[in-house]
From TrEMBL:
<keyword id="KW-0456">Lyase</keyword>
<keyword id="KW-0520">NAD</keyword>
<protein>
    <submittedName>
        <fullName>3-hydroxyacyl-CoA dehydrogenase</fullName>
    </submittedName>
</protein>
<dbReference type="Pfam" id="PF02737">
    <property type="entry name" value="3HCDH_N"/>
</dbReference>
<keyword id="KW-0560">Oxidoreductase</keyword>
<keyword id="KW-0511">Multifunctional enzyme</keyword>
<dbReference type="InterPro" id="IPR001753">
    <property type="entry name" value="Enoyl-CoA_hydra/iso"/>
</dbReference>
<dbReference type="InterPro" id="IPR036291">
    <property type="entry name" value="NAD(P)-bd_dom_sf"/>
</dbReference>
<dbReference type="InterPro" id="IPR008927">
    <property type="entry name" value="6-PGluconate_DH-like_C_sf"/>
</dbReference>
<dbReference type="Pfam" id="PF00378">
    <property type="entry name" value="ECH_1"/>
</dbReference>
<dbReference type="GO" id="GO:0006635">
    <property type="term" value="P:fatty acid beta-oxidation"/>
</dbReference>
<dbReference type="InterPro" id="IPR029045">
    <property type="entry name" value="ClpP/crotonase-like_dom_sf"/>
</dbReference>
<keyword id="KW-0276">Fatty acid metabolism</keyword>
<keyword id="KW-0443">Lipid metabolism</keyword>
<dbReference type="InterPro" id="IPR050136">
    <property type="entry name" value="FA_oxidation_alpha_subunit"/>
</dbReference>
<comment type="pathway">
    <text>Lipid metabolism; fatty acid beta-oxidation.</text>
</comment>
<dbReference type="InterPro" id="IPR006108">
    <property type="entry name" value="3HC_DH_C"/>
</dbReference>
Length: 689
């Protein structure tokens, strides 16, 4: 403990009080975790916090209570280890010590002869959920916002018993999902109902009187009036599930995320090993991973998503934002319809779509209504909310319905002349203060607004598809966009629960520019004669969320070809329009069918006689990314390299273990070799030098 005592942490205190519970002849011991801060700064455990919990457990046991329960401050149970302190650990011995300390303290609840309960009143992640798993019984609030074991997404493993306790509680298929699959799916959280159905909690209770009902339920268990039954875990399927999981990881990650494979090893250990052996294996895995580059990148990415995304660099003072009481959407296609549903759900204001004819308008509004009906049928929306949303979304073929709109966004065909015509018509209808937003993926905001009487109220508002899933919103400032417009855009983005990044008016902005350059190098290799399967698998060692051709199919070959043309016009020396991409786009055929390259598409290609190896394709792609990022930073497209990484994580799904992209380019030496300098200072997203 002495070696860890100097580590800085916001100490989470374990506050003990005795509680009289009806029906019991002795008080219960209630331990409340509280770091003294509000719910925006969750409880975490460092060495001092673990020591406080240890002392509270000793005091509770000494009082001979009817039972011991652990709960958290309002809205928060505990979100795990104090990961901010991990990079300050001096050596492997300290890493082992922090793992063993957590195991020793938590095990006191597991091994207690007095019944122990976790009253999970709010967010419980990582070590917080592991603490709950050590208790004999668990109640869960229906209002708990986040439940997860997210360690693998950061480059770690559950290090305080989770890898051993969870599979033996809920079975190996569900445990593999929670410990490995969910973290690798944009760190997917469990909802309270899901956690209860999996068996993580013994009972799900309403949040309004959660503590009172938890105490009442616990008393029933202690008296024998409530019987907790748990299904027997099937161990016959254990090896098969893990074999399949390992194959899936190999196909998807190709060894790029060491933490995922260590987690698999720990889950395998959990089948037959005693608890002490399993937790010792956790200690060793944790100590190894704490000093990995992947963890440093994961912590860097986590900080971007949790902190920088909530305080966008360069955003104007929010007091300048104008209220938005009605939203207009030009267009009623799929993207426009998705936007209509999002705006209505989040802003709770009238949303009206327009299009060229009534059938298109009806189709767009019908899409919104269908999605609302699906949400109700799946229990994701109550009927009262659905009825309200039905009334908020409407359509018209007459643009005069925008006269009283405060915020109008267009989602029409990606053609500059078409968009300029739309704004010219609308400017005669809307008020001078109404914000005019464009969802363009590559065109110039400045050029779009150039002929308007009020170009200062035009702003880029670039969503990513699918709109409801991807959290990034690129907010683009044109040359004449004013602060009030920009502030309103950021305020709306926040209401939409998107993570907004300020971007200057440069062709294709951030994500599309980098992905187009990236895909361009892959197709340049194909054009030169590299077989499609070699080019497609060349980036596998990075562990990207999808291969290049699958990404192309998701974006759409026609869209990719169009954006490529825009960038070629702006930067002809770096963005070459591939003849083979044109052929694929014009064919209209899928390039990938059931995860295999479409033979019919392959027959369309015209290739050279200078094929590249997979390693050459990969290095060319990384070199191109490094060059393009340096140019973007020099041009001031974003404020810092951190914004590039944030965009790639949230808009393109690039993984935490890469830190987005710039940490990987730094640590592989690519950045310095190509551009002469690193993107980030040494020690940021990398081991200290």
């Amino acid at each position: 403990m002495s070696a860890l005592a100097a580590l800085n942490e916001v100490v989470t205190r374990a506050l003990l009080r005795q509680v009289s519970v009806p029906g019991l002849d002795r008080p219960a011991a209630l331990i409340t975790l509280d770091n003294g801060l509000d719910h925006t700064k969750p409880n975490t455990f460092g060495p001092a916090g673990l020591a406080s919990l240890d002392e509270a457990i000793s005091a509770a046991l000494a009082a001979d209570p009817a039972f011991i329960a652990v709960t958290g401050k309002p809205y928060i149970f505990c979100v795990g280890a104090d990961i901010v302190g991990l990079p300050t650990l001096a050596d492997r011995a300290q890493a082992l010590e922090i793992g063993r300390l957590g195991h020793r303290v938590f095990a006191r609840l597991k091994d207690s002869t007095v019944p122990t309960f976790a009253f999970v009143n709010g967010a419980a992640m990582g070590g917080g959920l592991e603490l709950a798993l050590h208790c004999h019984y668990r109640t869960l609030s229906g209002g708990a916002a986040a439940l997860a074991l997210p360690e693998v997404s950061l480059g770690l493993v559950p290090g305080w018993g989770g890898s051993q306790l969870l599979p033996n509680l809920i079975g190996i298929p569900a445990a593999t999902q929670v410990i490995i699959q969910n973290p690798l799916m944009q760190n997917k959280m469990l909802k309270p109902k899901q956690a209860a159905e999996l068996g993580i909690a013994d009972v799900l209770l309403e949040p309004a009187d959660f503590l009172e009902r938890s105490l009442e339920w616990a008393a029933g268990v202690v008296r024998g009036a409530v019987t907790v039954t748990r299904p027997e875990v099937d161990k016959d399927m254990w090896a098969g599930v893990l074999y399949f999981a390992r194959q899936t990881l190999d196909q998807r990650l190709h060894g790029a995320v060491p933490a995922a494979y260590r987690a698999l090893d720990l889950l395998e250990t959990a089948k037959d090993a005693d608890f002490a052996t399993g937790t010792a294996a956790e200690d060793e895995a944790l100590a190894d991973l704490i000093f990995s580059e992947e963890l440093r990148s994961g912590l860097y990415a986590f900080d971007l998503v949790q902190r920088r995304a909530k305080r966008p660099a360069g955003a104007p003072d929010k007091s300048l934002a104008r209220p938005v009481t009605k939203v207009g959407i030009v267009g009623a296609g799929l993207m426009a319809s998705q936007l209509a549903l999002l705006f209505a759900r989040r802003l709770q204001v009238p949303v009206v779509l327009t299009d060229l004819d009534q059938s298109r308008v009806d189709k767009g509004v019908g899409y919104v209504h269908t999605q609302i009906e699906k949400a109700v049928s799946k229990g994701r929306m109550d009927k009262g909310t659905a009825a309200k949303l039905y009334g908020l979304v409407s359509g018209s073929v007459d643009k005069s319905v925008f006269a009283d709109a405060d915020f109008v966004i267009e989602a029409v065909f990606e053609d500059l002349d078409v968009k300029k015509q739309v704004w010219a018509e609308l400017e005669k209808i809307v008020s001078p203060e109404a914000v005019l937003a464009t969802n363009t993926s590559s065109l110039s905001i400045t050029a779009m607004a150039a002929e308007l009487e009020h170009p200062e109220r035009v702003v880029g508002f670039h969503f990513f598809n699918p709109v409801a899933v991807l959290p990034l919103l690129e907010i683009v400032r044109g040359e004449r966009t004013d602060d009030a417009t920009l502030a309103t855009a950021f305020a709306v983005g926040k209401q939409l629960k998107k993570s907004s990044v300020l971007v200057s008016d440069a062709p294709a902005f951030v994500v599309n520019r980098l992905l187009t350059r990236f895909l361009g190098t892959v197709f340049a290799a194909v054009d030169a004669g590299t077989p499609l399967d070699v080019a497609n698998s060349a980036l596998d060692p990075l562990g990207l969320p999808m291969r290049p051709l699958a990404l192309l199919q998701l974006v759409g070959p026609a869209v990719a070809y169009h954006v490529g043309g825009t960038l070629h016009a702006a930067y002809p020396d770096r963005f070459v329009v591939s003849e083979n991409l044109r052929r694929i786009a014009e064919s209209g055929q899928p390039i990938v069918v059931e995860d295999r390259i479409n033979d019919e598409v392959a027959k369309l290609l015209v290739v050279g006689d200078q094929p590249l190896s997979g390693e050459q394709v990969r290095q060319n792609a990384l070199d191109a990314l490094a060059q393009e990022i340096r140019l973007m930073l020099d041009e001031g497209v974003v404020a810092e390299a951190q914004d590039i990484d944030l965009c790639m994580i949230l808009g393109a799904g690039w993984p935490f273990h890469l830190g987005g992209v710039t940490p990987y380019l730094d640590r592989t030496g690519t950045a310095e070799r190509v551009t002469g300098q690193r993107f980030l200072p040494r020690g940021v997203a990398s081991l200290r030098d």
